[in-house]
Each structure stands twice: as structure tokens, then as C-alpha cells.
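Appendix B, record 7
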Amino acid sequence: MKFIGCYPFTDSGVKSQVAEPLMHVPIFPLNSIVLPRGRIPLQLFEPRYIDMLTRCLKEDRGFVVVLLRDGLETNSTAAFYDIGTYVRIIDFQQLENGMLGITVEGQSKVAVVKTWRAPDGLNMGDAEYLVEEAELAIPEAFSELPVVLKALLKHPVVNDLDMNVSFSDARDVGWRLTELLPLDKQEKQRLVELQDPLERLERLHALLEALE
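C-alpha cells (predicted):
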């Protein structure tokens, strides 16, 4: 399957006509995922990530969030998947615990094609945008999925992220359920890598039936 293509979203939500590869972009491995138009809060305390934040704000650029395959988030030698999401920082603040809190928003799915480690241990890489998924209506067979999503969005932590969700868009519903449902991380990664929104909804529907 060929993933790499063009048309990433700009900060205004409009598709760009040219998708330049992301060169020398920071790679942030996590035990969580975020997809386009999704948001996730992060706490930064390691010097390498504080420096990354400073550079991203100074250069007005984002970084790539990928799911950990093996190891810990704090381990510079951890292995991670190569399909993730390019994110931009939309908020940051000093937390009561002394850490720096940031909120990032997913922009576009990407394929990391090359990685290396900077002297400070920060993962760096080159990435290419994936083909934008098609905007599709939700079939009647999956009509309960937006209902499940609405319930999940009522959780205070999720509600505070103030995400703008289209409950009629198969992409949005599938992306948000992939982020929020308590699924095995390998299963989450399989859902991330799917490029067909309806195939993702079909898989999510089957997983929810299994959970019940």
C-alpha cells in the first residue's frame, strides 16, 4: 500500500497545495496517540524536551508524535512506530508540579522515513506526509459510534481540550475513538495506519462489540 502523498492541512485547516517533506523534525515517542484535529496534553520535564519546545516555538514549527513500540517514554533508546502525526503546540503553561504543560493538536499523518539521535538524546527524523483521508459520511450500520464518542468526550479531562468534532465525518469519529477508547496500543497503531475511514469504523465497531 502506498501511503506517501501530498495535501497536508495548514494551521488554518486549509489543504496546502504543496507538501514539502518534514526535514530534521523532532520525534516524540509516547504511550499515547494523537491524530489529525485531535488534541493531547503533555508534561515536559526532561531538558531535551524543554529545548525542543523552545526551538519549536522560536521557529514556529511542530514535531512528530509516534507510538512507542518498546521501552519507556523517558528512554532515549526506546523503539517506536514509523507512522505518526505531525502536531503543533497550541498552548503551554507552568504546572503546579513544576513541570511545563503543553497541549498539541494533530495536523497531518506522516511516515517517518529516517531517524537519528541528537547529542542531547532527542530523537530526530525526516518525515513525509501521508495521503489525506477522504471525508465520508457515517453509514447507518455504524450510527452508534458517534453516540459512544459523545459519551467519551464528556470526561472532564477530554472536555477541557475543547476539541471541535464533526460527528457526521467518518474520519473525525474514527480518529477520536482511536485516541480515546481503552484499546491495546498495537491495535491503536493498526487503526492509525488505516487510510480508509470506513475500514477504521468497521474495525472499531467490531472492537466495541468485543469489549461489550
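Remarks on this record: DSSP finds six helices and seven strands in the chain. Residues 1-17 have pLDDT under 50 and may be disordered.
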